[in-house]
Amino acid sequence: MGDVTTYQNKVLNSSQNTDVSISSVGPASPSEWDIIWRECEYSTYFHSREWAEIWSRYSKSKMSLTPFLIMFSDGKRALLPFSCLTKEGVMPILIGTRRLYVSSPECTYGGWISTDKLYCSHARLLLNLLKRKFNNLFWRMNPYDNLALESGVRISDEGETHAINLEKGFDAIASNMSRDHRRGIKKAIQNGVSVRIASWIKDWLDYYQVYEITVRRWGNRLLGDKYSWELFYDIFRRNSPNVELWLAIYEDKVVSGELCFHSKNHFVCWHGASLEAYFNIRPRNLLLFEAIKNACEKGYFWFDFNPSAGLKGVKAFKEGFGAQAFRCPIVELRPINMRTFVIEKVEGKIGEIKKRTKLTLPTTLFKKQF
After folding, report:
1. CA dihedral in degrees (289, 292, 298, 302; nearest 10)?
2. Which of 158, 264, 265, 294 pairs with 143 at a CA distance of 20 to 30 A?
């Protein structure tokens, strides 16, 4: 795993103030959220109010913004950029899970953000607050906040992302790319592929068409649900300075694209799609090459490829650009009562049965019979 201690909170030694306490917890105003997000050294776009608003709108308000501002006795403060998903039905009410707090929508990086230097004592207070007040919580940890990562919180599932530290400069990064990736970039240029950032609605429509074709190609391998055009249109219409849709063009046609977001120090590729018919001219290699170069020129510290869902080929592709793996584990807090205990046991047994069934049933049973 890579080292991310340079631009994030470091765990302090025993000289820290252990007498600190939480003096108040209350709703954060939109301006407080925006200011803390904008100035926090380790924030990502996924911690922003804008990202939460996008998913509130896309969910038709089933997910609502519920940010909290925590004030400490030493004058420091932290913000929890939470959203709350309200579940329907009787069962969530009975077991106390009707309200699910989400640290950041769509399983993206979450956790507290702050403009102050926080220490282990603050982290312990924040974790105790989460367990007490937000006992039904989903949180993918921020790979750039070492204080949270080393806080000792119980991990539900390990996860990793791949990122490039841009401090070394673009020339060093480019020279560290694999020979195959450098050949791919050269091939794309020789074939006349160009790269630019989308500037109007037709660019976004063209990209969405590439995405739809890609989804059909993935078929049952698609991870999660397909996103509708409404999501991309909402992101487009905001005209946000924190959003860039990068496009690879071949013969006046969009053949590959990458929807990217950025914060103070962090640039991330969140959503990508490419046309299979043009894989051989390597448009995505050139697109990412240009995006990395641009991120270096604009002074970002990190170029983040985002998690790879455990797909080895995807990981290898990112590592070909010189990206290193960084931890971003998942934390799930659930209310503890007899009902949730029983449900977890039943879910565990069902999972075991499914796993055994998958291992023992012959694959011919799943083939279409003629």
Report:
1. 180
2. 294
